[in-house]
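Hey, I'm writing a tutorial for new members on how sequence and structure tokens pair up, and I'd like a real worked example in the thread rather than a made-up one. If someone can provide the structure for the chain below, I'll link this post from the tutorial.
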Amino acid sequence: MQTQNIFVNGARLKDTIEAFADFGRTPANGVTRLSLSEEDIKVRDYFRSCCEELGMTVTVDDMGCMYATLEGIEDKPPIVMGSHLDTVVKGGRFDGVFGVITGLEVVRTLVDHGIKPRIPVTVMNFTNEEGARFEPSMMASGVLSGKFDKEVMLKSKDPEGVTFGEALKASGYEGAAENRIKEATAYLEMHIEQGPVLEKEGLTIGLVDCVVGMVCYEIEVTGESNHAGTTPMGMRNDAFFAATDLVAELRSKLGGLDSELVYTMGRVNVYPNIHTVIPNKVIFTVEARHKNEEVIAEVVSIINSLPETQSGCSVSKSKLWGRDTVWFDERVCGAIESSVKSLGYSHKKMASGAGHDAQFVASYLPSAMIFVPSVKGKSHCEEELTSYEDCEKGVNVMLETVLTLLGDSGE
């Protein structure tokens, strides 16, 4: 079947984005839709109804993940498109949900054109990707991929003391473990970039080849408290001054490693945190992200080479956590790249600095991601925005990729 020049309905896509945003929309035009909240349950119901209108079969697994499947001619592993419907508090209208809407619009377009896919096409909604109500983030995809223990996750509590297991049972979206996705021809995840690169470079599509590796250390500097007014400067063991010297050293050394390395000292605790008392302890974190494991190893080496004493204070280092770079499937990435080129959209290969369900899914299914630009790089806030034109182009890329993976066949 000839499937060239098939495009999604841009007006319908815009309406759909706004319709989903109505579930938890904030006065400032953002969205608060925490996992398994009333708003999340309502948007799940809406997503289910949209899919069933298309003749799709909707099932749910034991972690509450939703699978809406358009039957294929052949009973083979499906092409899966997915992301998540939950948001952070006062988040945006695009993060996560755009990936689900993309899948929905691709299926709508197939149905519009009377294309019955050669193999099934599934649209997924992963439960609790954000971790904003129940920690950790990417909970369900972590369980499905064997990264997290399900029983531990079920006991995770929200600030009101409700466990994830209790909320899941009450939601009506607790399904069966046998419904979990176990195999797929490909898993495709559309996402806003959540960064400024594509917009700054005037590009439309990001071809995501990996989710970068990262490492996080905690540095503890211990000095001696004393009176801030009576202790001469030369007789102090000021933990804060020592810590700032270490921060400056880290910035100098890490800044010279690689232009793509990003690093953050995002948490600092000063004790006793009283303006009349010389600080006796400072604890701060150093987090670094890069796709090359050798660069991450250099970061670790620099952190471990920090002196054991600084300005009369003792210094200790401890690793909090880390992850390896997750590389996406070359075949699936190639299909996306071919689709972008056939559509003539500007693009670049890039890494994702943020975590996504796809990074866990990639451990057992052939996976890849597509980025569309974020205006001013903003995300996880009410100002989050991607133009409807860029959204439409992104979904066109997904549609073309699905058609490519289907082999452009139908009946």
